[in-house]
Each structure stands twice: as structure tokens, then as C-alpha cells.
Structures
1.
Amino acid sequence: MSSIIYPGSFDPVTYGHIDIIKRASKNYDLVYVSVLDNNKKSPLFTVEERVKMLKDVTGDFDNIIIETFGGLLIDYAKEKNVHMILRGLRALTDFEYELHMAQTNYLISGGTLETVFLPTDLEYSYLSSTTVREIASFKGDVSKFVPDCVAQSLYKKFGY
Ligand code: PNS
């Protein structure tokens, strides 16, 4: 059985993430969508809220498991017995950070944890959770970037 882990902060999940999840679910038997539970990052949404939003927007896929992880990604992958990490690439600007992360994970896992990249759909190449949070923080319209239930959660967070 082919399994892959799609890790991230998902603060909050966007149409860009959903596109990657959809494509991964077509190409792997099992996809772990794994939300980093790391207080150091001081996210906008709690890890429980992020997991709930992910579950709400991925109800159509039956080969996806959404859960949280803490600590090192290599330890979590080992615990799941999964040897492949998936990351989306939006633009060249993502590449250096992603390459370093992939190389580090490969090295510290003793050459057992590989990373594959999926280029995001052109439609979402500009999109990031950071941008979505920023727009919402100024009470802007985020309906083009995130599903309605996520937009509602953002509006509630920022009181509009
Ligand atoms: O959505 P993000 O914030 O770009 O995701 C980053 C994430 C969660 C994939 C990365 O920060 C991570 O794997 N953190 C866990 C800690 C770890 O293993 N660090 C070493 C890898 S360089």
C-alpha cells in the first residue's frame, strides 16, 4: 500500500492545500494530512480548529487521515511507518526552503525519508495562508481563497 504524509501548519487550510490533497488522494492509497502542533509558531487557529476545518473541507475523500503531530517530522513518519513526504511548490521562492527541509529530513532520517513535490495549480500559485490571514485581519473578502466554512471561521476570529 502506498502512503504519504502531507504535513503543514494549515493556518488555515486554503484552496491551494485542498488542490494538493485532492491530487495526492488520487495517486496514493493513503494520505496523512498532518497538522503541526507547535505553540512556538503562535498560530491564529488552535490545532483543534485547524483539524476541524480540514475535516470539514475534505469530507469527500475517503483515503485521507487528518491528525496532529508534534516534534520532528521524521519521528512522526517513523511512527506511521511512512517513507514519503509531500509538499506543494508554488513558485521558485518556495524552492530553497523546501529543498533544505527535504535534504535535512533525508539526512537526519538516515536516508529513509524521501520528499516529493507537487507544483500547485497555476490558479493557486499566489495563494498562502499568510496572505489569507492578512486580508482577513483587515476585514477583507477571502471567499476566493478558502471554502465558505473557513471564511466564516476567519470572519468570526476577526469579529466581522
Ligand atoms: O505549512 P508549513 O508551516 O510550511 O509547514 C512546515 C512543516 C510543518 C512541514 C515543518 O515546519 C515541519 O516539518 N516541522 C516539524 C519539525 C521538524 O521536523 N523540523 C525539521 C525539518 S527541517
2.
Amino acid sequence: MKGPKPTMNSYISLLTATDARSHVHLIVGTNPLAAARCGQSLSAGASPILIAPETAELYYALQKRVDDGEVKWVKSKFQDEHLFTLGREEIDRVVDAVFVTSGARDPLSAHISSLCKRNRIPVNVVDAPQLCSFSLLSTHVDGPLQIGITTNGRGCKLASRIRREVAASLPPNLGSACSRLGDVRRKIQEEDHLLHMALADGDDVDDSIDQSASFNKLVTEADLDAVKNRRMRWLSQICEYWPLKRLAAITDEDVANILKSYDDLGSSNPIGKSSPANNASNRGRIILAGSGPGHPDLLTRATYKAIQSADLVLVDKLVPAGVLDLIPRRTPVHIARKFPGNADAAQAELEEMAMAGAREGKTVLRLKQGDPYIYGRGGEEVEHFRSQGLGDKVVVLPGVTSALSAPLFAGIPPTQRDVADQVLVCTGTGKKGKAPAPPEYVPSRTVVFLMALHRIAGLVEELTGHLETEKNTTADEAPRRALWPRNTPCAVVERASCPDQRVIRTTLDRVVEAVEQEGSRPPGLLVVGRACELLNKLEKGRAWSVEEGFRGLDFGLEGLDLGA
Ligand code: SAH
């Protein structure tokens, strides 16, 4: 359990990434570590200069780098002036960093360290944290992707083991996916920039045709921003929601689709008009199934069978990676292009694809997150498919909803005798992003808010205070809505049943601050009511607590094949 602030003795470092291209690094020493430091320096694009007396015998790998001309060897004992004469001209020859590899016992190490510190030159001394002004991370490198681990002095072997485990858990080719997505991002920015320029030219033209320039500018820039945001948002949603494995395997076609989304996502029907499927093939059908909150073991057997037998799988963006992994490799999969502002277009696209598949006689699985009928547009989809003539060819399978399972995995029983006798599931965001009417305070009520965390501040205001419109009504006109006391217990449950599940327990008056400080980890929901503190009380004096990780299915059955 973690408190809102780190305590004094649990200090953490400020992790930064230094662009060391063309920097000059001094490496003092002759041993294998000196060779390793030269290697690290070179990979970061810096120029290492080795300081060692002419008589010194260099470790063979180090000697090789010198022989190959990669490392310059200044054949001399370390001298103070080296720090101020061997560096880049543009920074008055002060060196950019110093690596001492002889360890803490060598008196020279302490001398170099204090000289560097006094002159603000970053210094690292092997195995002597007290002499270092910075330390090196244990790093995993894959193309432009770098992952660094530090235990802050608790052991470099341990850090390196953790780094290896982290690296092993990543899908292959993640580095090239980073490159690809980076290229897409850059391309979008470049094209947007060109568009801006084109618009600026357009403004000149408009100026000449007797209209207010500012009027033109206002409208066109707003349009442009809308379009621009749409494409960037789509990209950021992919990065946020696609399973890493899928991201790592991103194809040229995916990239083309992202870039193309600029043109067609605005239209509500990106694939084209469909005609009612009077001719729907007899075999074709659509299965609408819930995939549960995250962990694949929470799938129903029915949904599992549907996954195995479908000819085409169309998934919503929140469907978890563990579930996607169960889809046979041969089965085509399409992930919804849903993001704020594009929900309707993405929905229409999926519905069209489902209909097209069914017409071709395919079994199409529409995989939804949680339960398909709980804020999943499941009902709308069934209506749509019926209107297209599919009728009884649509089957709906339930799923474990996050609304009830997330509280459970956070140790919150939404009902309990004498404490809570009703559960209300609501959304924090209404249609077109509007705030829905806030639920009234009932002491024995547990409320679960889905899609609410991005506007938690507004929501808490509405729960604990009257709206402007309510303030203007008199007591005789309408009985005033009962407000939630600010000390009502609540919990933010994020990524329930996923390995990175997180639970923040607090009260309504501190939840906004807690979410602000801890950041968000979507998807998440908010549970409000006394039930929240039944099994887990907040320690006295603490504003909130944070629990990391998911252990809800740790009951010793891992690896047991239940023969789905
Ligand atoms: N049909 C889904 C809900 C879809 S609405 C269901 O029955 O669970 C999407 C919202 O569900 C998210 O904004 C979030 O509030 C909630 N949600 C979905 N999965 C979640 C999870 N694993 N943990 C916490 N909240 C989740």
C-alpha cells in the first residue's frame, strides 16, 4: 500500500534521458568497466576520452576500441585540468560527464568526485553511490525504445534481473512499433502544418473578397483543429488501448488506416450505405458477446466457444489483451476506431462490417467489453441488425460487467445487510458528453459510476452540491435533491482484473486530489457509498490509499486446464 507522498527514507531519483550526442565523456580507468562505459558512451553518440597513464595495460576490449579509433586515449594520470580542457569548444572545453571506474577505495575517486561536484560536472564512480552525482540505469534497448531500471542503490544485480524480466514480458518488435508510430505521429504533425500553411494562404484570398478576415480565420481554424484532433486522438487511443502485442505487430495497412482516418472518420458512415439484408444468407449470423472486465479467466464458456468458432471478430477498443490472445491466429480481427468525437462513426463502421460478414454467410463475433448491455450499445446494435433483416440471426451472450466485478476485486461488497441495500450503476458522461442528472443521496445506496473519471471534479461537485438550475427552484416547486456528504467513502477502481489493477480508497472530498496526484489508468470507475469501507478501512489520518496489482484469481489453479 502506498501513501500519497513518499516518506523521507524512501527517496526516489529524478529519472531523465540525456541527449548525449557529441558530448565529451571522460573515462578514468583501464578495466573491463572502463571498456563498458566507453561502449555506453559511444552508443549514446558521445565521444569517450580515456584517461590512463601510458604505462597502463588496457583491458583488451578497451585497447581494441582505442586501436579502432573509437576512443581517444590521453596517456597521462588524471589531472584536474583535464576536466576543463578536453571538452567541447562551444561549452568552453568543460567535459560533459566523468566516469571513474576504479571504485571508492582509490583516493583519486573521491578527489575527482568532489572536483566535479563543485564544478557541476556530472560524475559517476563505480560502486560508490556517495561519490556519484548520477547513476546509470540497467537498460533494455530495442530501437528507439529504452527501458531503464534502478533500485536506487538497493543492488544492481537485482535491477538487472528486473530489467530482464520486464524485457522478456514485452512482445517482440516493440521497438520497431515505436519507430512506426513515431513516424505516423510526425507525419500527422507535418501534414497538419502544411494544412495550416495552406489555410493561411486561403485567408489571404478570403481577405480580398470583402469578408471579415477574423471571421474566416475563426471558422477555418476551428474546422482544422477538429480534424487534426480527430487524427491525433485516434493515434493516442491506439497507443492507450491496443494490446501491446497488437501494437508491436502493427502493419503498413494499420498505419495507412490511421492516416486515412483523417478523411473518412468524420462521416457517420465510413463504409457506405447498406441495404436491408433481405437476402441475408441462412448461415450468416452475428454473436454479440461480453468479454468480461479484463482477465481472460472471467470469460464465460459460451463466449470462449464463440471466439473459437467465429469467422470474423470485431472488437471494441476496451476488450482486454488477454482475451484477444485467445482469438485463433487465422481469424481476422478488427478493433474499433473509437475515440472521443468518433464514437458514432466507429460504431457505424463496426455495424457495417458485421452486416457485410453476416451477408456473406459468416459467423461474426462482436466482442464487447464487460457485459454487452451495460453501457455497451449492445441494445442499439441488436436493433440495428434487426432493422437490417437479421432478426433471429443475432445472439447475445452475457459477460461479467465491470460495474459489479471491479468493486468485488477491490474488496467492496456493493450490498451488505444493514449497510447497503441498493446498487445503482450509472454513467458519469451522458450523450454528446453532457453530464447526466446526478443520483440522489441515499445512505444505504452504493453507486457505481462508469465513464466518469475524466470528469471526476465535476461529478463530485454535482454529488455534493446543488446545480445552478436547482438553486433557482424553491422548496415548494421541487423537493431538493439530497446531497452526498463530503466524507462519504469512495473508491476509484482502475483496470480491474488486469495485472496493473489499481484501487484508490478515499472519500468524496479528497478523491479529486487523489486522482490528480496519482494520475489516471483507464479504464476505471468510481464506487461511492458506505459499502466502500466495509472490508477495507482507510487508516486514520490518511487522505487516501493506493493498492497496486491484481491478485483476485490467485487461488492456486494457474495452469490448470479446465478444458474450455
Ligand atoms: N460494457 C462494459 C462497460 C462499458 S463502458 C461493462 O459491462 O463493463 C466503459 C466503462 O466501463 C469505462 O469507462 C470504465 O468506467 C468501466 N470499465 C470497463 N472495464 C473496466 C475495468 N477493467 N476496471 C474498471 N472499470 C472498467
